[in-house]
Amino acid sequence: MPRTYRSDRRAAQARQTRRRVLAAASGLFERQGYAATTVRAVAGEAGCSVQTVEALFGSKPRLLKACIDVAIVGDDEEVPVLDRDWTDQARRAGTPAELLDVVARVIGPAQQRSAGLVLAAFEGAAADAGLEQLAEELVRQRRGTATWIVRELRRTSPLRASERDSVDTLWTLMDPAVHARLVRRLGWSRQRYERWFAASAAHLLVPDLRETDRQETDP
User: Fold this and answer.
1) CA–CA separation, 192 and 53 (whole Å)
2) For the segment 69-126, what is each residue's pLDDT rounded down to a tens digit?
3) 156 and 93 in contact (C-beta within 8 Å)?
4) What is the CATH number of the domain that holds 48?
5) What local confidence, expressed as pLDDT, does residue 5 receive?
6) With bands split at pLDDT 50, 70 and 90, how would you rate the model's confidence at 6?
7) At 4, is the pLDDT very low, low, confident or very high (cuts 50, 70, 90)?
């Protein structure tokens, strides 16, 4: 029993250290950018050794990816974004408006937490091969989320365009650069961004009810 206690305590300490490193790295990546943030600086900010950071994350690109993953979902639980509770709410939505309201309330906080980190990855990708791989992974990840949302949206309504074109449109609306321009540059609140996102997605992806009626009555 004492051995189990010590093991549990070590696991808890390791998790606390990981959280400190992630918090330190996220702050530095946001403030300084990817290139100017060193593993040594992260270790100093987190109060641990460089070896500890390397043992936890392996490389600076993987450290940034871990920061982004935590920022997107809001915690360090190893549960993918599409396995989270919000997807159950989305599946229960009966109309496009209900579904997009659920999505917007997830996208808004996720963008607020992660947009700066994702943009740091994209900006550094041209000069770092490891970061280029990460940027491509982030693009695929966002596209996977957009595809899931579009397929759920198609369950509640016909779509204006093909699935591929609809995914492209939603993927663009979800771009962190769009969020950064609206919220950071223009000073939008998160709530305004969420309303804009839901309304824009509905307008671009879902036919107007009057338009649908016309299509049904046309000879």
Assistant:
1) 38
2) 999 999 888 888 999 999 999 999 999 999 999 999 999 999 999 999 999 999 888 8
3) yes
4) 1.10.10.60
5) 55
6) low
7) low
pLDDT at 39: 95
State which H helix or E strand residue 183 sits in.
Answer: none
Dihedral sign of CA atoms 134, 135, 138, 140 in order: negative
191: Cβ contacts below 8 Å, ≥ 6 apart: 108
Same domain, 113 and 211: yes
Instruction: Answer yes or no: do 51 and 66 share one domain.
Output: no
18 neighbors 78 (Cβ within 8 angstroms): no
Measured torsion, CA atoms of residues 169, 68, 76, 11, in degrees rounded to the nearest 10: 150
Domain that holds residue 11: 1-58
- Count the domains in the chain: 2
Distance, CA of 164 to CA of 171 (rounded, Å): 10
Residue 188 · residue 182 · CB < 8 Å: yes
Q: Quick one: 8 and 79 in the same domain? A: no
